[in-house]
Design brief:
Helices cover 27% and strands 29% of the residues. It is α+β, with helices and mostly antiparallel strands and 368 residues long. The chain binds zinc ion (2 copies).
């Protein structure tokens, strides 16, 4: 299903803007929101945005589709074109000029091979055509300690993913046999079906858009062309990642249709025995005895870099929070640090000796 936001709005244009303006706007936005140009934690967002602007461009740069859209809105385009058809007609390379330097085809190609799923199933290959299915993304979770989040780490991750079937090299066909044209779609890969007066093009369910079907399936993969296997990788955890951050590892996902999808790794931050993370700051609780709080003292406070000395001034009140500058968490990709907040609790002695009691009574008298 295509986005229902206004295509002109997505490109930051007035309704009915010219194709020239559409091209200009798209070029600017596509460079800005390219997922490979943003930091790791913003990638997912950038991909979404990139998809959105590319779809808007695909429609508004094509005079026929633009006319349909201007007249009937999304319904006009959706009723005539499948998601793939919307992109098929669009000229993405023209806009970024061919030859010389890193052409847009390169950028585009890398995105589409990395995110087979970016356009909801179909993905574009470097020649500008559509492959029916390219890779499949996997979601996985990885647990890290607060120290690993603070200093960065290299973690080993073991997970299951689909690899190309070694017996049939991913074709799904039994050796000696070959594929035959799909009888349902006659090799087109798509079938049209009616919904009221609207006719929509759909991926052929029989051949799943491939146009061909396997007559004799490979024994090992049952014709799937891929087999599930345990896979190990080393993952670099960047300094400053947060609980819930998602790391994207391109080409570590499932093999599907000659391509590999991405691996989306969700970071789970384990609780720490001494520190609580509050954004970039760390909070910890320390207790000092009542006399030290009254008279003042120097204590040792844990930080991620080891213990440091901290002054407790005379007359410190319960629950006072002291701030240790730059002893908190590193900020992602900035080189800056948060602070450590030390919350001081006051311990009142439960049992005191007779002698101590006398002395406290003395003090009480003098304070009256
Ligand atoms: Zn096989
Ligand atoms: Zn078919």
């Amino acid at each position: 299903m295509s986005t229902q936001k206004d295509y002109y709005e997505i490109l930051g244009l007035q309704k009915g803007a010219s194709i020239e303006d559409v091209k200009k706007a798209y070029r600017k936005l596509a460079m800005k929101h390219h997922p490979d140009r943003v930091s790791e934690d913003k990638k997912k967002e950038a991909e979404e945005r990139f998809k959105e602007i590319s779809e808007s461009y695909a429609v508004l740069s094509d005079s026929k589709k633009k006319q349909l859209y201007d007249q009937y809105g999304h319904a006009g385009v959706d009723s005539r074109y499948s998601q793939e058809d919307i992109f098929r007609g669009a000229n993405f390379s023209d806009i970024f000029g061919g030859g010389g330097g890193a052409g847009f085809e390169d950028i585009f190609g890398s995105i589409f091979s990395d995110f087979g799923d970016i356009f909801g199933g179909g993905s574009r290959d470097r020649r500008g055509g559509f492959q029916q299915s390219g890779g499949e993304d996997i979601q996985a979770r990885i647990k890290i300690s607060l120290e690993e989040a603070a200093f960065g780490a290299e973690k080993e991750l073991s997970y299951y993913r689909f690899d190309s079937c070694p017996t049939c090299s991913g074709s799904g066909v039994k050796s000696g046999s070959s594929k035959v044209t799909c009888s349902l779609c006659k090799g087109k890969g798509a079938v049209r079906s009616g919904m009221g007066f609207i006719s929509v093009s759909q991926t052929c369910p029989n051949c799943r858009g491939r146009g061909k079907v396997i007559k004799d399936r490979c024994r090992q993969c049952s014709g799937e062309g891929r087999v599930k296997k345990q896979h190990r990788i080393k993952v670099k955890i960047p300094k400053g990642v947060k609980d819930g951050s998602i790391l994207r590892l391109s080409k570590e996902g499932n093999f599907l249709g000659k391509m590999r999808g991405g691996l989306y790794l969700h970071i789970i931050l384990l609780p720490h025995s001494q520190f609580r993370r509050e954004g970039k700051n760390l909070r910890c609780q320390i207790e000092v005895d009542a006399l030290s709080a009254i008279l003042g003292t120097e204590i040792k406070v844990p930080t991620l870099d080891g213990k440091v000395k901290m002054k407790i001034p005379a007359g410190t009140q319960p629950d006072t929070v002291f701030r240790l500058k730059n002893k908190g968490m590193p900020e992602l990709n900035s080189g800056r640090f948060g602070d450590e907040l030390v919350e001081v609790g006051i311990k009142i002695p439960k049992n005191i000796s007779k002698k101590e009691k006398k002395l406290f009574e003395e003090i009480a008298k003098t304070r009256k």
